[in-house]
Design a protein that fits this description.
The complex is a heterodimer of chains A (about 280) and B (about 350).
Chain A (H helix, E strand, L loop, with lengths): L15 E10 L2 E11 L4 E5 L6 H8 L7 E6 L2 E2 L5 H5 L2 E4 L11 H6 L14 H13 L15 H14 L4 E5 L7 H18 L2 E5 L3 H7 L2 E6 L2 E6 L1 H4 L2 H8 L3 E5 L6 E5 L13
Parallel strand pairs in A: 3-8, 3-9, 6-7, 7-8
Antiparallel strand pairs in A: 1-2, 1-4, 4-5, 9-10, 11-12
Helix pairs in contact in A: 4-5
Chain B lengths: L15 H32 L7 H8 L6 H34 L11 H16 L4 H24 L7 H23 L3 H4 L15 H20 L1 H7 L3 H6 L4 H23 L5 H13 L3 H25 L8 H18 L7
Helix pairs in contact in B: 1-3, 1-13, 2-3, 3-8, 3-11, 3-12, 3-13, 4-5, 4-6, 4-11, 5-6, 5-11, 8-11, 9-11, 12-13, 13-14
Classes of the chains: A alpha/beta (about 280), B mainly alpha (about 350).
Chain lengths: ~280, ~350
Amino acid sequence: MTINQPAAQPNGGPRLEIEKLTLGYGDREVVHDLDLIIAPGEVTAIVGPNACGKSTLLRSMTRLLPPRTGRVLLDGKEVHATPAKQLARRMGLLPQSPIAPEGITVGELVGRGRHPHQRVMSRWSEADDRAVTAALRATDTIELIGRTVDELSGGQRQRVWIAMALAQETEVLLLDEPTTFLDISHQVEVLDLLTDLNRSAGTTIVMVLHDLNLAARYADHLIALHDGRLHSAGRPQEVLVPELVQDVFGMRSTVIQDPISDKPLMLPIGRHHVVALDAPS
Amino acid sequence: MTTSLTSRPGSAPADPAAQLRGTRRTRSLALLVLAAAVLAAAATSIVLGSRDASWTDIWAGVSGQAEGFAQAAVAKRVPRTVLAAVAGAALAVSGLVLQGITRNPLADPGILGVNTGASLAVVSGIAWFGLASPTSYIWVAILGAALASAFVWTVGSLGRGGATPLKLTLAGAATAAALSSFVTAVVLPRPDISENVVSWQVGGVGGATDDKLWLMAPFLLAGALLCVWCARGLNMLGLGDDLASGLGEHVNRTRLLAAAGAVTLAGATTAITGPIAFVGLVVPHLGRLLIGTDHRWLLPFSVMGGAVLLLVADVLGRVVAPPTEVDVGIITALIGAPVLIAVVRQAKVREL
């Protein structure tokens, strides 16, 4: 078990820290006493089995869920004490299955990402135009601008949602399972797109991912949660090891070096079709 | 971020700003056409009636003279026309806002029992608490509307899944029916109330006077301002609470303020006209079909669309069976019920 938290850098990139955070709904505690530092300007993936508190953690980081104890700090300021719009100009969240109003067009939906930059009665500005255009270009959805969101395919729709998050122009972008319901080529497309964004704009990206191998491939940092506690954190090579898979997912596995990316690649060992390795005892 | 690494060959680079400007032009055009329709409907409402009037009578009536029967009839049609337009606008905006905050395509102040709540509060006030002035009617009506909305929201949120559209609608319809029979129970043994010009069971605009219009004006203005203030927030609520909060919207505050606006509009209108249903259902749906999902455009559309609908309904009620009149509340129900069924039958009734 490795816990290798990135050093909080004094300058360069937003500093997102989680201190002794406990979260829950009703009488159920979901996240217990969690300490984390998110690497600024890098791509972080949070992995763990279902109901381990990944989405809850993400919701709390954007002040959607107040902490029971502990705090979330952005550049030393508590996010739950930061005015909503002010925080929304720095940090965006794309929930797992966002709702689009029926009949809304792509252009309009992406435009709504500009909300934190607008006042109640302000008009649409040049900056809004520029941000929306750039977001549509970056996600390759510009030719969809006049279409309604209902008529898009799953992959197109996810790109449009990411475009909306881009139009928000934040330094930190949190995404809750951005690849669910997508087929493998669209999963890779979305992760490539997020990597583009990270490399070209320096956006700090934190995403919850289900697929361990894609997480290891695309993340600079892996955070593994188990039962609402931190299991391990660090570079994918340090975190994605057979012990982690055994502890967190309760499954035997072997980890090899991915011949494509030199990142770790986890191969599950089930009860059947195991011929090459040491057979399950 | 400006580099597009995945740009497909052959896709023409559209100019999004031009696209958006084009949309704006179409919407402005729709609103202009609608404004013309309001004027036409208002003119028709003044000219047509169960009593024939010559053009000179009409002109005299509109300019304030009331010599002779026909001129007097026309003079009475002016406040009636204004009331129909204003009430239609208020109910349509109220429906639009209720649909926005509940994310429920079936929301309407009539269907959700808000208007009947206002109605019951007023008749109870008259029958038992000696309520006599129209101003106090309005206050009491708004209170009744607020109580009924809170009740329906609570009942509709019970059980699993929270306030789903169908549960909310059923709770509203049941509440409306129950409150409506309470109204009957209060009014029946009291001829002094039932002889009142306002029908508390089926709304109408026949009792319009200039005084009543001036009384309701500040309430409608306040309600409308609240709704306009919340327009952008309503757009955010349409994205779901999580995303809306993530974009910096105070979802609970917006919901509360917008609800206050919608309830004020529906309550103040009902205090003067009695309960009128379905305007708030029909008009916003038409608006979404014609000009999209942006509440900053849907609000003016609803104002004018509601005015046209109620003006036309009132004129129809006056001409279908002369010399008697059919209350506008009955006509809107005839128009609205099929729309309600159509909306329910649509596959995507679950969420806006």
